[in-house]
Amino acid sequence: MINKLIQRIIKLEAPIVVGLDPMLSYVPQHLLAQGYKEKGENLEGAAEAIWLYNKGIIDAIYDLVPAVKPQIAMYEQFGIEGLKAYTKTIDYAKQKGLIVIGDVKRGDIGSTSAAYATGHLGKVTIGDKDYRGFDEDFITVNPYLGSDGIIPFIDVCKQEKKGLFILVKTSNPSSGEFQDQLIKERPLYELVGEQVAKWGDLFMGDSYSYIGAVVGATYPEIGKELRKLMPKTFILVPGYGAQGGKAEDLKYYFDKDGLGAIINSSRGIIAAYKQPKYEAYKEEAYADASRQAVLDMKEDLKKAWVKN
Ligand SMILES: O=C(O)c1cc(=O)[nH]c(=O)n1[C@@H]1O[C@H](COP(=O)(O)O)[C@@H](O)[C@H]1O
C-alpha cells in the first residue's frame, strides 16, 4: 500500500490527504433535511446526513488526491449509527480508487492491540470463514505503550500489505508537555522517531517503510530534524490550514526527491464553503468549494514540494 500511495502522489502531483472529519454543523441544510426525512431527526438521521455529505465530497475530489483520512471520533459521536457511516465512507472511498487512512489512534497492551489490528486492518475468523471489520489501508497508532503495543499492528500490516502512521510529534499546542521532555538530554519525540525508524525496518516497501510517522505541520523545525532522523519513514503531516501550518514551513518534511510526506487538511477542505475565500459557493455547492480548496492547496504546496 505504501508503494501505491507513493505512485498515486507522483501521478496526481498531490501529496495531499483530505481529512473526512464531519461535524454536524458543517453539513448543509439540504443534506440534513434529507437525512432527517429518510431516517428521523435522531442519531440515525444525523449519521445519514454525514454520509451524504462525505459522499458529495468524495465525488468532488477523488480524481485529485491519492487518499482520504476519516477521523473515527467524528463518527463515534453518533454511536453505532456513526460507525456505520464510517464504514460506508471507507467502502465508498475505496470504490472510487482512494487510499484510506483510518485516523483511529489506537495502541494498548499486546493482546488488545492485536484485536484492534484485526478489526481495522486484518480479518477475523468466524467458523470457517474470514471477515473484515473496517478494512482501512493504513491507520494511525499511538506508541505510548512501547514495542509490545506496536508489534501486533506491524504483524497484521505484513500479512495484509497495509501500513501505519505512528504518532511522533503531534500538531496540538500542548504536544510539548510530554513529547518535548528531555531524556538523557534528548527530546522524547526524537527517541520515538528513532524507534519508529527501527520498527520501519521490519516492513520496508520499495523506497519507504510501510510503518510511517505522524509529525505535525505546526512545528517545522522539529519536522526538519525528524525528517533527517527517519530517512525511510513516510510522514503524515496534519496541522496545515485550520491549525495554522503553512506550505512554506513544510519544505523540509519532504526529501530531496520531493517525496516522503503527505499533508492532511480536514476542515480547510471539507468546510471550505464556510470560509470567506469561498463565499461565492453557496451551501448547495459545498462540494465544488471543497474541490476548489484542494486545487488551491495543491498550488500552495508547490512552495514546499520542490526538490530540496
Ligand atoms: O493523527 C492525526 O491525523 C493528527 C495528529 C496530529 O498531531 N494532529 C492532528 O490534527 N491530527 C488529526 O488531523 C486532523 C486535522 O484536522 P484539521 O485541523 O481540520 O485540518 C484531525 O483529524 C486530527 O485528529
TrEMBL record:
Entry keyword set: Decarboxylase, Lyase, Pyrimidine biosynthesis
Residues annotated as the enzyme's active site: 105
InterPro entries noted in UniProt: Aldolase_TIM, OMPdecase_type-2, OMPdeCOase_dom, RibuloseP-bd_barrel
A GO MF label: orotidine-5'-phosphate decarboxylase activity
EC id: 4.1.1.23
Example GO BP: 'de novo' UMP biosynthetic process
Pathway: Pyrimidine metabolism; UMP biosynthesis via de novo pathway; UMP from orotate: step 2/2
Entry protein name: Orotidine 5'-phosphate decarboxylase
CDD domains with a match to the protein in the record: OMP_decarboxylase_like (cd04725)
Orotidine 5'-phosphate decarboxylase domain: residues covered: 15-281
Substrates-to-products reaction catalysed: orotidine 5'-phosphate + H(+) = UMP + CO2
Keyword match Lyase: yes
Organism of provenance: Herbinix luporum
Family: Belongs to the OMP decarboxylase family. Type 2 subfamily.
UniProt lineage: Bacteria, Bacillati, Bacillota, Clostridia, Lachnospirales
Alphabetized Pfam families for the sequence: OMPdecase
